[in-house]
């Protein structure tokens, strides 16, 4: 079979089944092309993408400006490793540091790598700056977290499927309930060895759980009072997804007027990935100010591909698109519209319990048992009606379209979703 032979959907699925490890359970649809908010399958059927590759494609599929930056750089210089300097990395580091309001940036490739990087920086800070005794540092995490798939990260997951039979687990983590300030305060007081608190501003994979309005600000204040680093994993919530540049949105250069009324929280360590490249290339990063980032010295950490010239060029372009196309503002406005339209439907319906979210990171909870296959079947029906979404956990369906969507497109999607849901009413 030649590389350029066109496969049918069934052929492509059969190949993955036979030759690929079965580490995912994809919705049966085989995509071959994407543009803006749309993707096409190999038979030519067009769909609205309502997942955006887990919020990596915030800028829309194959954004010409980002693709252009990538192809230009790919024809010039792709990889030097960090054994030598290259003339793109510094530009990216300056651009992104100023964009998000931090002194420094450490570039990696995937979200999980960036989380690992943040944990390492936090531990080193604990020993060298805070003065915790060697090997005693502990980091507080939240129940039902999702931070990636490495051995250390799954060590503090409580998803049995992600964890079981992958031990022994990395030590040094304390798990508390999400959105529970008392639990955080208790954990902070429980030990002199707490180095950091790692948290998702909204728990995306768990099912788009939005914490109470003052949770992040108060959690940050508690961490400050105990000299503990507040580490925000914004791999999914960051880069305009929730209607602001960052879901924590502290001291950033976002000019979004819609931020007012929500507390500003400046994380000590910020973790970004996914949409940092607009979905065209794996780019992740950790940002912090000098007193924290300066604990990292030559040889402490690295990655052959992290900070390569293509990644740097792509990330600058991806952030420029967010700024120039005012995607945070668009996500804010369309998110309000989406939830209000769905709430109108929910009042008349018994199949959906509720819609929740911020900006264009939303989810509906299906009115059925958590282990039912109703949410999966609804996603199959949505696919048939030209819209792609996927259940997160059990009976929860996440809705996260690219942020370049127009109001008319969004209303079209609302009508596809409500029409589809109606067919599942009892
Ligand atoms: C996706 C995600 C990660 C992991 O990113 P990968 O690029 O898949 O390794 C980490 N944290 C959060 C919150 C995520 O959504």
Automatic annotation (TrEMBL):
Species annotation: Gaetbulibacter aestuarii
The molecular function GO annotations come to:
ornithine aminotransferase activity
> What does the record give as EC number?
2.6.1.13
Per its record, how is this protein called by name? ornithine aminotransferase
InterPro entries in alphabetical order = Aminotrans_3, Class-III_PLP-dep_AT, Orn_aminotrans, PyrdxlP-dep_Trfase, PyrdxlP-dep_Trfase_major, PyrdxlP-dep_Trfase_small
Q: Which family does it belong to?
A: Belongs to the class-III pyridoxal-phosphate-dependent aminotransferase family.
The alphabetized UniProt keywords are: Aminotransferase, Pyridoxal phosphate, Transferase
Q: In which pathway does it act?
A: Amino-acid biosynthesis; L-proline biosynthesis; L-glutamate 5-semialdehyde from L-ornithine: step 1/1
Tell me what gene encodes this: rocD
Give, as one word, the top-level EC class.
Answer: transferase
The cofactor named in the record is: pyridoxal 5'-phosphate
């Amino acid at each position: 079979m030649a590389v350029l032979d066109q496969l049918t959907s069934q052929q492509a699925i059969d190949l993955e089944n036979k030759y690929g490890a079965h580490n995912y359970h994809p919705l049966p649809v085989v995509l071959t092309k994407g543009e803006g908010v749309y993707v096409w399958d190999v038979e030519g059927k067009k769909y609205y993408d309502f997942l955006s590759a887990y919020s990596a494609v915030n800028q829309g599929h194959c954004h010409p400006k980002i693709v252009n930056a990538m192809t230009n750089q790919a024809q010039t210089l792709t990889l030097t490793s960090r054994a030598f300097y290259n003339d793109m990395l510094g530009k990216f580091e300056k651009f992104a540091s100023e964009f998000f309001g931090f002194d420094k940036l450490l570039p990696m490739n995937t979200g999980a790598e960036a989380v690992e990087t943040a944990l390492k920086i936090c531990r080193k800070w604990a020993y060298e700056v805070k003065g915790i005794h060697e090997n005693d540092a502990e980091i507080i995490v939240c129940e039902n977290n999702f931070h990636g798939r490495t051995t250390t990260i799954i060590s503090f997951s409580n998803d049995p499927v992600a964890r079981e039979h992958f031990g022994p687990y990395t030590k040094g983590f304390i798990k508390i309930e999400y959105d529970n300030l008392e639990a955080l305060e208790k954990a902070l007081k429980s030990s002199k060895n707490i180095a950091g608190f790692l948290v998702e501003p909204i728990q995306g994979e768990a099912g788009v759980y939005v914490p109470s309005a003052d949770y992040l600000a108060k959690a940050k204040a508690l961490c400050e009072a105990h000299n503990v680093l507040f580490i925000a994993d914004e791999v999914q919530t960051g880069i305009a997804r929730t209607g602001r540049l960052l879901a924590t949105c502290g001291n950033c250069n976002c000019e979004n007027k819609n931020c007012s009324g929500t507390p500003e929280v400046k994380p000590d360590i910020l973790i970004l990935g996914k949409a940092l490249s607009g979905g065209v290339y794996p780019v992740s990063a950790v940002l912090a100010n000098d007193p924290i980032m300066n604990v990292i010295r030559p040889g402490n950490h690295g990655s052959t591909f992290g900070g390569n010239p293509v990644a740097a060029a792509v990330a600058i372009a991806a952030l420029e698109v967010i700024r120039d196309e005012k995607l945070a503002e668009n996500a804010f406005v369309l998110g309000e519209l989406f939830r209000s339209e769905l709430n109108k439907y929910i009042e008349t319906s018994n199949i959906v319990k509720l819609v929740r979210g911020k900006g264009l990171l939303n989810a509906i909870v299906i009115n059925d048992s958590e282990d039912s296959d109703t949410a999966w079947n609804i996603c199959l029906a949505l696919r048939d009606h030209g819209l792609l979404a996927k259940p997160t956990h059990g009976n929860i369906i996440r809705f996260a379209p690219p942020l370049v969507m127009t109001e008319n497109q969004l209303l079209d999607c609302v009508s596809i979703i409500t029409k589809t849901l109606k067919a599942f009413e009892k």
